Batch of 2 targets.
Target 1
Amino acid sequence: MKAAVVRRWGEPFVLEDRPTPVPRAGEAVLKLRAAGVGLTLLNMRGGRFGGETPRIMGHEVSGDIVAIGDGVDNVKVGDRCTVYFYLVCGHCRWCRGGRETLCEKFGGYIGVHRDGGFAEYVSLPAGNFLKIPDGLDYEGAAIAADAVNTNWHCMRERACINPHDDVLLIGAGGGLGIHGVQVAKLFGARVIAADISEEKLALAREWGADETINVRAVGDVAAEVKRLTGGKGAEAAVDYVGHGKTFQSAIDSLAVAGRAVIVGAGQGDVTFNPLGLILSERIVTGSRHSTRAEFIETMEVMARGVIKPVIGKRVHFTDVERLFEDLKDERLLGRGALTYA
Ligand SMILES: [Zn+2]
């Protein structure tokens, strides 16, 4: 089979011929139909998630089950499936308590610690495959696997969005952010979208943002949020970019009892006044991906057409490097997608 391989972290993809995988006991093989490409992959390829090389990346994927190994009973040949991104034990207190992304025996990420789906086929533990509901296509299911389910978890469990909230989304025009706009609107919030270009802000408006802030034009994001909320601030602020400066803007934009949530791979430092946290009961926290149950819910909502995949550019998986160039230059609108036909 053909596979786009990273020979060493930090290097571009190289197209290789690899043996088509045969499923081991407890595993199943997926023939790829669609994949999503976003900023997380760029960080992974830079080596920030660890893992050994050479590696076939790709965790936001979908396709058809074409072979199953011994002992597999949750999927069968012919099932349309997508892939759960995390390798977790399934038995620890966090897995059993509905917070499996905090697994005590975390085994790493698909596409980083074992081969993923930037290839014609991939073999994975059968428990990582989830069936795609009727009404959701392969591309939508692939995007659900990270760009949408991450928001489902974030908005409901971490940012705790209510219909009366003003919600600031920093990086709202990117692959994660544009689906965050839709999820926050679905939970009834008034959405303030912040991003670095008018093009990205126009996209955020198109998908439901009520107000927009051009970060490069405004400078002081928090002051602008205060102005747009009558001096109150935002009840929730989600940072998809993950620079110290962007998360600082999220924290500084909060209303009393507001929640600042970091989603984008965090780097850099932030400061806040501990006494201020007491007096205002503001919360500064992070949100980590999604559980399998949240992922299933996400796909069900998407199958109803309530949340739609926003794809800025499609290329064949053998050209995945082109999408990485767009990501590096911060010019990809929404999610990138890969085709396999
Ligand atoms: Zn566990």
Target 2
Amino acid sequence: MARVCLDPGHGGYDPGAVGISGLKEKDITLAVALETGSYLTNSGIEVIFTRDCDQVSWPSEINQDLAGRCRIANQANADLFISIHCNSAGNPDARGTETYSYTLSDRNQKGAEASRLIQAELVASLGLQNRGTKTNNFYVLRETVMPAVLTELAFLSNSEEEQLLSQPDFRTRACKAIARAVIKYFGLSLADLNQVSTGPRLVINGEPAVNVPYRIIEGKTYVELVSFISSLGGQSLWDEKTKSINIQIKKSYNA
Ligand SMILES: [Zn+2]
């Protein structure tokens, strides 16, 4: 089974770029990674996330942050690493989509191939300016041992593109584009991509739960706690001192 590590850029202490209206890069990258992950899982691809909520498992320091992400991908033996970002520039007119692979390495060819596929699908689906595929010595591209890609979906520093990034429909197009590229990369079938789920659907308060990773194992449903609680409008917080997970849900759901 093909295994992909999805890396939602930034998170926790690090908001990443912040748009004019206050949209944070870390929230966009997380939403895109989780939804992309659900499409990949439906298509028979195993997905590992470097983070699947706003809490991060690494210290609040940039080098340890990036090292932590690479360690997760390397230890999971992923076949492909995809770091998801939104761009930012001093010039508010800068716009468009670009995708990176690593500069010099044996795995460069596979990484460059994945980068081309992702860029092509994103440009076709989002219709933004095609800034092309590029190479760079980015930490997460260099220190991961598998083919690795970093994609910049659009510019948060461009008010039009920030507006687009805030729309769930626009993000869904990006997620499906990335998923389609990954499915093509592994030579798998695109048949399952447009289905919400090939198995039983998880529906929460009448809405298909695209942002809640879940599995059914031997007839029991296992959901990822933080996303599940948050989809119910609640909060879950880790208390390091007492080693407890504190969950708070609105009264109406307790009944
Ligand atoms: Zn970023």
